[in-house]
Specification:
It is globular and about 35 Å long. Helix content is 69%, strand content 0%. The protein has eight helices and no strands.
Amino acid sequence: MLERLQTFFQSLTTSRSTSEFAPGDPLIAVAALCTQVMEADGLVSDSETTKLRSLLREHYDLDGSKLDALIEAGREAGNEAVDYYRFTADLKRHLDENQRIELIGILWDIVYADGVRNEMEDHVIWRIADLLGISGNDRITQRRQAAARAPESAGGGDDH
């Protein structure tokens, strides 16, 4: 899993502009979608926040202040957006299909970080996957793999 995540975040590194987190930076779109998934159930747990921070820190080589800036930029972008299209359109331009599928896996990893999966989180990821052009089979496969990686059994829900 760590190798997969490292590869994903390194692929984003190569497409970054020289200015830190410029508008349209795909990493802001990733951070925004991650925060939207974290907030989908109305509760942002410490474990979800920790999971997001560790993914960005370990696999994107961000230090404390840059990491904080990215998460804040993602949160602000998410709060300003009326839907997910803004972010998914950017990511479709920057990521190939396999990278988009990996992103869905990362979103599921964040969902399972708190050990609880609910229908609001399912819906958000379904919508994001649909906008990214990810099939239902790939979305469900990524969910199952994330559940298997989760420290706690967080099953629950059906395969929609």
